[in-house]
Amino acid sequence: MAGPEVPEADRLRLAQQAAAATAGSRLDLRRWSKVQDGQRLRWGAWLGLRQLDGSRRAKVYLELPSEPLDEGAPEPWAHAGLQLASRVLGLTWRMAGVNDDGSVELYARIPELSWSELAAAASLVGHEDRLVSLVGNLITRDQLGRRVVLPRPSGLSLVLAPWGTPMAFTWFAVAKSVWADDEDVRAAVLRTTDLVVCRSDSTGLYQALSSGPDDGRWRHGMVGVGVDRAGGTWLQAGLRPT
């Protein structure tokens, strides 16, 4: 691993080496490194690890300093990413997450996102009605029953297969930009779990982790919902320990 003093331009290479050392990953990031060559970087890259079905999986997150994405991003992912950028005005790609199975997840920040733009973006994987319905249920409506404005900014992510096909789409937002407090977030998450396909033990685990004593600080971080090409849906919520 590397400390904060390591130059940002070196972090992608070190993250790849760490992925191989800790998870046996064979990630090849040479094509992605060209995106960062000669660019001014804020953070460079970091390594994410998770335990899944008894094995450790690696994912390297790298900063995307270029705008638009076609300036150096490798194919076939650049083409699919530009499709989304052309459908949603004001989209800024922030980073890419490169998985050890060859798939890539692109992350974007949208200053202002309308419901119609959300549906158009989600249509890249299909089932956009399911995604819009989940988001609407999660953030609810105003007192007059009108659909609320989407958070500003909103976040989007698009998972691309190794051959470039869009496979999954997620909408997410910072909890404190949407809800009044953690209890409101918790109520929204639990209300929405009935509409998604999730593991039977996930809700109980979330209830346990989200019900700690209030210490005056936000417990929830990012909250989002997603849909995949097969029509599967999910709900995700980031929590800090209490």
UniProtKB/TrEMBL annotation:
It comes from the Bacteria. This is Uncharacterized protein.
